[in-house]
Amino acid sequence: MATENPNADGFGEVSRVRGIAFEYLSFGASVFGLVALGVLLVYVAIDAFDLANASPEWLLTYFLTLVVPFIVFCLYSANDRDVTRRALVALGGGLVAVAVLFSAIEALLVPIPRLNWQLAYLFVVAAPVTAYLAYVGSGGRVGAVGFGLLGRLVGGAALGLAVGTLFLVFDSLVWFLAYTLGVLPAVGLYAFGRVRESPRARTAATPVGLVGLTAAVFLRDVIATYPSDLIIYLWTIAVPVAAAGALLVADRRGRVAAAAVGGVPLAAATAGGFLAAGAGLPAPTVLLAIALTGVPTAVYVSRVVDGGEGLAGLGLPLLLAAGAIAGALIVEALGVPAPNPWLDASFLSEAPSRTPSEAGLYPAIVGSVIIIAMVAVLSFALGVGTSVFLEEYTPGTGPLGTLTRILQVNIANLAAVPSVVYGLLGLGLFANLLGLGIGTAVTAALTLSLLILPITIISAQEAIRSVPDDLRRGSDAMGATRWQTTKNVVLPEAMPGILTGTILALGRAIGETAPLIMIGAATTVFRAPDSLFSRFSAMPMQIYTWAGFPQADFRYGVVAAGVITLLIILVGMNGTAILLRNRAERGS
Amino acid sequence: MTDSTESPDLTRRGGLTRLKEGTYGGLFAACAAITLLTTAAIFVTLLSDAVVFFRSISIVEFLTGTNWSPNPAGGGQAFGIIPLLIGTLTVTITAAFISIPIGTLTAIYLSEYATPNARSILKPLLEILAGIPTVVYGYFALVYVTPALKATLFPEMSTFNALAASIMVGIMTIPMVSSISEDAMSAVPDELRQAGYGLGATKFEVSTGIVVPASISGIASSYILAVSRAIGETMIVVVAMGAQARMPEVQQALFGIPFVNPADVLLQSGMTITVAMVQITGGDLTGGTLPYNSMFALGLALFAVTLVMNVISDIIAQRYREEY
């Protein structure tokens, strides 16, 4: 075009090369970090599961029994010809492309360490395609039901294990008394007040509960005989959870269904608990895991059956379990050599050791769970309190407005203080000055709570700010006081956002290592902590310790398993947070 | 926000209600006060032990000393911060060489080139980079990055080195640069872009010639924040960089110009301020010893530097922001 007029001194002559090059350069920059992280994660996964030593037959067996059925399930749920065609093309074409490209690179350029083309195919093609199909499949009703059920099974089991872990440290007898004398009467009074519309009963609930809790603490040492731990957990956790599940169902589906939803998991949990006790397993944990998995699952199944849509999705857990068993049987029958993963059940249930093959993460996991539970309570309470004060209780102008701005700037600055400095604060203030002890769980929890407090506050403020002002005005107009408006209108609306922010902040706390080192957390403990003031270790702390060991088995095996465990827990927490947010967004 | 609750009180409230209101207001105020107390506690904790430290070691000696050995096996203790500063600067600058160009390009891509769909996928994915625990990054640097670099580019590299650690710190701070810069770029009004196109500019010229200059204050503040984060980064350097406080060897180039071979600094072990603090925790933590107090002096230095950088970043973002 422009060349038609050579006199114009290049007017209108625009080079597209520079623009296109820049666009691709900037795109490359955006994915650079992600690709680098992806490669590293692939390697750490290979190391943790010892996939480098997995024979192709082994990979093929599990690919056929686990991955293929899952993909078929997702395609069935998506029910979209276009998606099916694209998925098959990607999986098939990817197989050829990866095999050819990989062999070419190996032959012509450099050998790629600890990877073969089968693994490359799994990670580069199969994993992303499966993830994409899972995303598409969850859009269909069948897929949504399947993933919902799977999530409840996994989440319930994780919750049960976590609660069981907490009772290693917290006194179950105090909890038994507190529940029986405080929680139960208070909840009962409150429910009575709701049903009979008696405000007096509802007002009485809080004082009665407090009196009961106080009495529990004082009576702890007075009472001599207690029921066994198993009975305590059955009475204080399994029964109320089952009752709550039954109540949820009773409204819609009548008494029989409600009794089934509450009774079946309860019976299963009781039976599981006593069987485990007989078999020498930690019975209370088994009981809690079954109860907390069973009740939400039963409620969900009942709801799906009631809705009558996507019933096929309920088969997903069975499909996966059957696939895993079939894979194991085939591997056994054909005598295919199986890899020896570092991350296995004994890694999660045993204590650390100087011998790589015997090293385990159990005490560190317990330490992390206990710390995070305390951090969750502390930072949630402080974060909500502060953000409510800043958003609801202080005006934008006047001396109080200035105070608000100072607080705001202060919080922003606290968010940027290096975590190692918080560690010094914990060491100087909590451990030494207040005498909570060097390297104890309490010190760690307080330090980490302060560390994530600014993040919690900022996200809670955003959640509160996003509550429409009309709702507040409406509440005010009906004569509600400020606290009543906050309690009945603002907080319920903002709660999903606040919870999301808190869980994301907890994800930060669970991976923090530097403050733990500074407060003198133990590098290695061989027993799970049994009190809040005992020395403890945490997952990142243990990873740090192991990474310093020179043996290759530690560097490339044990630490990789620890890293994968930590990352899976992080993904689980963040996934929960994102699900919460999405559900809240859909709801409003 | 809710000035309207000061509207006339139509129902006469009983004493119990008023007591309840006061209690909850007080509780929330107490929660807010804790954030102020935290800042005060950090100041006091750091300062009180640092003051004790500076009674035995003068500030001048601390700031100009070229030897750091708090727990020597035989010889005398020495508390000179210079080798630690060199280590910290090495990591920070190298990391900035990665995070600043990549982060800026990412921000430009997200704000100017990416389709809304691509942006909605890329942005949360990039946040993952900042969410991975730093000890995991340190492990990656030690176990995967260092051997890879050793096998390909730098055979003479030591197992613990500054380069691998800095690369990981750089990758970790990419989202810090990109998200703040992208916010600033997205805030540039579309009229400016349209005016650029109206003058015949290409998309490349609009992006680099209009959007970037118009959002330069936000971009600059994001750089400072990322650098401040790199300065305070602990676990990556602790795991991957080793703990050897040393002064780089100054060589004489032509005409006697002194210079330091970058390979000498980058490919060898080193020590940052944060590593020095972590190393001291291996000893006695009950307090009262000189190394214990020196930890707080280092913490004070770190706290002061990051605080000043954050304030500067804030001032740049606020004061030099172009208002549209």
Descriptive account of the structure:
The complex is a heterodimer of chains A (588) and B (324). Chain A is an all-alpha fold and 588 residues long. Among the domains of chain A are: 1-48; 356-587, MetI-like fold. Chain A has helices spanning 16-48, 56-78, 81-108, 117-137, 141-169, 172-196, 199-219, 229-279, 283-307, 316-334, 345-349, 362-393, 398-415, 419-433, 441-465, 469-477, 482-511, 514-518, 539-547, 552-587. The longest helix of chain A is centred in the middle third of the chain and has 51 residues, at 229-279. Chain A is globular, with a radius of gyration of 28 Å. The mean pLDDT of chain A is 86. Chain B is mostly helical and 324 residues long. Chain B has 13 helices and 4 strands. In chain B, the strands form 2 sheets. Chain B has a two-stranded antiparallel ribbon. Chain B starts with 14 loop residues before the first helix and ends in a 5-residue tail after the last helix. Chains A and B meet through helix 1, helix 12, helix 13, helix 14 and helix 15 of A and helix 1, helix 3, helix 4, helix 5 and helix 6 of B.
CATH class of chain B: Mainly Alpha
Overall pLDDT metric of chain B = 86
Tally of domains of chain B = 1
- Helicity level of chain B: over 70%
Number of strands of chain A: 0
- What value does the Rg of chain B take, in angstroms? 25 Å
Counting DSSP H or I runs of 4 or more residues, the number of helices of chain A is 20
Q: What's the CATH topology label of the domain at 356-587 in chain A?
A: MetI-like fold
Give the name of the CATH architecture of the domain at 356-587 in chain A: Orthogonal Bundle
Radius of gyration of chain A, in Å, reads 28 Å
**Mean of all residue-level pLDDT scores of chain A:** 86
Number of helices of chain B: 13
Largest sheet of chain A: none
List low-pLDDT spans of chain B.
Answer: none
Global morphology of chain B: globular
Helix and strand content put the structural class of chain B at mainly alpha
By CATH, the architecture of chain B is named: Orthogonal Bundle
Helix content of chain A: over 70%
